[in-house]
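ARCHIVE CARD
Drawer: 12
Card no.: 0347
Subject: one protein chain, sequence and derived structure
Cross-reference: see card 0346
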Amino acid sequence: MRIFKERGITATGKVLSYDEFMRTTYLNKQKFVDERMPEIIKKAEDYLAEEIPIIPLSTYISFFTTGSRQPYVDLQNVRRNMVLTLSIAEAYEKQGRFISKLEDAIWAILEETTWVMHAHRGHNPGNPTAMVPPVYNETDLHGVDLVSAGTGAVLAAALLLHRDAFNELSPIFVERMEYELEKKIIKPFISFHHSWSGAYGEKCNNWVTYCVESVLFVTAVVEKRQNVREFVVNRALDYLDNYTHWMPDDGGCDEGPGYWSGAAASYFTALETIYDMTGGAIDVFDHELIRNMGEFIYKFNIHERRYINFADCSPNVSPNAELVIRYGERCGSEGMVAYGKMLAKGETAIKLNYRNPYRALKDVATPIVTEAETTKAALNVWLPDLKVMVSRDSEDTSKGMFLAIKGGHNKQSHNHNDVGSYIIYKNGQPAIIDPGNVTYTKDVFGPNRYTIWVMQSHYHNLPAFDEMGEPNGPVYTSTRESYDSDTHKLTLGLERAYDRRIGVKEYTRGAVLKDGVVTVSEDIALEEEREIDFRLMTLTEPEKLQDGRLELRNGVTLTYDARLEYSAEEVDPVGMNCTAHWGVEKLYRLHFKIRAKDLKCEFIYS
């Protein structure tokens, strides 16, 4: 669905001039909620005593030799978050005590050869194979990636808030900032289509929304040429249409709730920026798809900060509550507004992230939510395009059984080989889990991705046949998906999720929650007898009550076919901060084995 194209919307003749935008935008008259500022001021004071980190070339290169992103990323983040925090603190206090450190941090960023993250060198058109930052000239342009776009946005925020103070230091300082923003952000954005843009017909992901959000903000508060302002907004409309072209009508984010803040939330922020840049002339917030994209975040909530974590997603997510409220208000979703207020109630602190300065400037001006009713979660959700079903016993997320199960295919964005997997919670606490994600290294998005344990079906709640699990690829998919809107049972055909050489003639998995009991039914027909090994992931080793019955975590009893041979093994969560994810140091994988050609059985959770 291409929203702007279908509505015949262009930015031509609608974009405010730089002078008019600066005269009318609230950003130029930044307001602050006093209660939100103490923590920001304290962090800014800490930065005054902290050295601006040096980023050695060896740290940049280490990614290519060790595969680890983190040493370089940590140094980048400190510099950039320092700029955002000091900028907001100084804009609030207006005492001048943060300006000098702010200017030093900005200067350090201006002197960086490239703002593109080393792991994203493929999006760096100058020399994508180099182990060191490329040499740039007038023909070899910089690339725009997540980090460079966010860097540009945070520098633009600093310039917006403190142009006069920077000019007092020297007009050349401002000139240098504008020069680097032009060279590293605006010029490459308007000069060619990046590979993440979807302009070549390929499927695109949250890179589009994240990058467009930032480039629009840079253009809004820095670019003075009217023709360039219009060109950037028109290109942004095209790119955002490329993104929604691949979005399912149900608004489901196949990258999971952990990426919602960089997907639907960034899309919304881009729309807010476009609305502001055009003085409200471009307004598409009433579109059903946009509302569905927003509502995904609360539909996938399990309880408090726990979310359904299919794909590269932590089980703990902290969406921007103030943005959730604004999103819901703009698109007319009472559910989003209520959910956002519940998240925000009593919270004064704002989590600053340099990649989203536009949001930060809105957040610090958002009144504290003092009253919020407990939201009522939907008992049953079926996203037919994403092919995810959610069922719960109670509208109170702290009570009753919870079930989520997914279909789909094994080439989704941030894919794990997990077609047909499910998770179960009780009273808001985990019983059967999806392990989650690992710390990103070069292997996570490289050819070795599916050698990583969490990416494999062997560590999701799925069977293997003679130790063979689901492969990666779009052809490995669920079929025959059937959701009964009366019983809220989902039935999936999983035979095509496995390699045909395994000989799975037919495999039907059904899942339903009724009267506090989750029943997962298995109906398998193979071409020849194999060892069928159902695997389930848990946080603790269950207590075996008797053959066919286990006591799982949080008071969940699992009843299974006693013909299945049960065993449990510890799983070393390599590459995962398991304590942060789950509050334990290790996980367990349960096995339920049988040799058979045909099998019908059930796993019953109560």
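Annotation on reverse: The longest strand covers residues 517-538. The CA atoms of residues 437 and 454 lie 7 Å apart.
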